[in-house]
Model the fold of this input.
Amino acid sequence: MPRGYITIANAERDTRLEAQVGMVLRVGVLSSAAVILFGGVLFLVHHGHSVVNFTIFRGTAPELRRPGSILLHAIHGDDLAIIQCGILMLIATPVARVAFCIFVFLEEHDFLYVAISAVVLLILLYSLIWHP
Amino acid sequence: MSAIEFSLLIGAASLLAGFLGSLTGLGGGVVIVPVLALLFKVDIHYAIGASLVSVIATSSGSSSAYVRKGFSNMRIGLLLEIATTTGAILGAFLATGTPTGKIAVIFGFALLLSAAISVRHKKKQAPDRPGDPLATRLRLNASYPVGETMEPYQVRRIPLGFGLMFGAGTLSGLLGIGSGAVKVLALDEAMMIPFKVSTSTSNFMIGVTAAASAGIYLSRGYVQPAIAMPVTLGVLAGSLLGAQFLVRARTQAIRILFAVVIAALGIEMIYSGFTGRL
Done:
């Protein structure tokens, strides 16, 4: 098989892969934005006229800091937790993209990049579930 | 200020920031922190948390458009993400222990640096350095579409690029910005990747880098949903709008104008940081 042929096949496969990755990103961003918007509208309907002041840092409520409790409060209709849930989905979008890459490289038998993607994923998971 | 006024004003400011950030390629995050901190008197840690979330949104949103065109190099992106994500975690650790004034001063210098990088003269020289042998082994050399044909390119000085990316990641985690300017510098100047490839690959990496520090910001209570909501929605809408104009309006004049705004915000941040007003 001539060498050029392999290169073109690789390029085509990479383009297809990139199209799929683009899809993962688009779906992730649009669905998180929708959830943030929904939570935001609820928040403004409930508390739109209360005074807000963020000049002094107090930190968010403890239930808005961990993925588990954010989901729990969001399910119960807490407006701020719903916004936070959308933010969590947004943070998860690039993580999903990296995880997706692992599978694609695995399919291509490109084990070097399976390993590299896995390292990036581990670093991301460390930061997401890391507790001080 | 009532929650409705706060959300509308910040949403509008973020829309403008996202629009200009997308037009100039500097990202909206770089102006949203000073705007929140200086104009709206929001604590800088909250401002950074909100900006970081918006950075993920714009990076993912705009890179979905870029990747379809086949400009970004995913292998380069993933390899360098090892450097940027570790840097981002270090930056997030540093942010929690650094007082507000010092963060403001560092932020100011990062703004000045971004402004300088954005108006620098791009040398149009053919890369004179030989390709890095490491690039062949790591299968980083690729090709990108130029008109109807695919043009191959080689990647150079990988260790230098990797080191710069670690720095970009640390800056991103410390300040809640995408550090797109430093990333493009590393890809452009150090690794000598074609401009279109470096811009879209950098954009691609920004979201992953920001996600690495966002987890730590979230668990420390720095991500305030009432602030992050208008900032994220505004910046995202603005950057999608900006992307529509990208082809027609990418003029040097806009870049210089935005760079001047950024530099002015940078000086203001440094001044406020030193005088303890933040």
In short: Residues 3-48+56-128 of chain A form one domain.
